Amino acid sequence: MVQLHSAKDNLPKAGTIIASSFTSPLDPLYLAGIFQPIFTRSYPSTRKVERITLFRAILLAFSAPRTSPAPTAKLVTLRHLTTENPNKIICVFPETTTTNGRGILPLAPSLLSASGETKIYPVSLRYTPQDITTPVPGGYLSWFWRLLSKPTHQMRVRIATRIYNNSRSQDSPSSSSSASSSKKSSPFKAIATGYDTNIFDQLDAQNGLNGGGASSSEYDGGMDVDVGEGDGVSAEEQKVLDRVGEDLARLGRVKRVGLGVRRRLSL
């Protein structure tokens, strides 16, 4: 078992980004209590995010998903948020909506707006029993009844190895000199490491790809990702989102699914 005090280097800290799963209104409460982050809302149609309060983050779990922001929404990039708030953690829900905890939805492109020097920590939150997770949109009372009718609940949190957005080195963030030399391009490097520590569970610490998944040779060649200004995602950019999605699926021991928010709304 990896103790919390011995895993400080593997925990999100100020200036980093949490890419969290989203299954319950309790998720923002837990994240706020432990990390005190700035919460954001992502949309499938844009790389920018909307900064929201803790209360709005909780209400998102009861709300129907949206494919695009409201006309009055104030959108910013993750790079801007981390620059303006260097002493805070930024929390992103890249699936953009709650799930039932049995799969990982396609991720929004919002993570691609982060700086190439920023560390991203995929975080998976799971509950036992699972009936306290996803409420029906608007079903406040029924969800509270299920929550309060159980004497105890178990929460399991797993944090993946940090992902460095750096094409030059997998073990360190990009240097300021390399960042200034490419203003139009923001390189991203995805580390194929899976998770190496579960600080709240009885899992053994792992390094490398012991948990399965892509082989290290698949990523050894490096990956330079140009985030650009558009909202379209290139094949190289998609690899970054896939790496985060694979980590979330591995942490939660679930599969990735192809049913995104747009298809869910069309059904």
Return Rg in Å. Answer: 18 Å
**Main sheet attributes: strand count, strand direction, barrel closure:** 8 strands, mixed
Number of strands: 10
Low-confidence stretches: 1-6, 167-171, 177-230
Mean pLDDT: 75
Quickly count the helices.
7
Q: Roughly what percent helix?
A: 10-25%
Distance between the termini: 44 Å
Strand-residue fraction?
15-25%
**What overall form do the CA principal axes indicate?**
globular
GO biological process, one term: lipid metabolic process
GO molecular function: acyltransferase activity
Keywords: Acyltransferase, Lipid metabolism, Membrane, Transferase, Transmembrane, Transmembrane helix
Pfam family, one: Acyltransferase
Provide a descriptive summary of the structure in words.
This protein is α/β, with parallel strands linked by helices. The protein has one domain. It has helices at about 25-35, 55-60, 80-85, 140-150, 175-180, 235-250, 260-265, and strands spanning about 15-20, 40-45, 45-50, 75, 90, 105, 120-130, 155-160, 165, 255. Strands 1, 2, 3, 4, 5, 7, 8 and 9 form an 8-stranded mixed sheet that branches. It has a two-stranded parallel sheet with strand order 6-10. A hairpin with a 2-residue loop joins strand 2 (about 40-45) and strand 3. The protein is globular. The N and C termini lie far apart (about 45 Å). Mean pLDDT is about 75; it is low at about 1-5, about 165-170 and about 175-230. This is Lysophosphatidic acid:oleoyl-CoA acyltransferase 1. One of its GO terms (biological process) is lipid metabolic process. Belongs to the 1-acyl-sn-glycerol-3-phosphate acyltransferase family. It holds the Pfam family Acyltransferase.
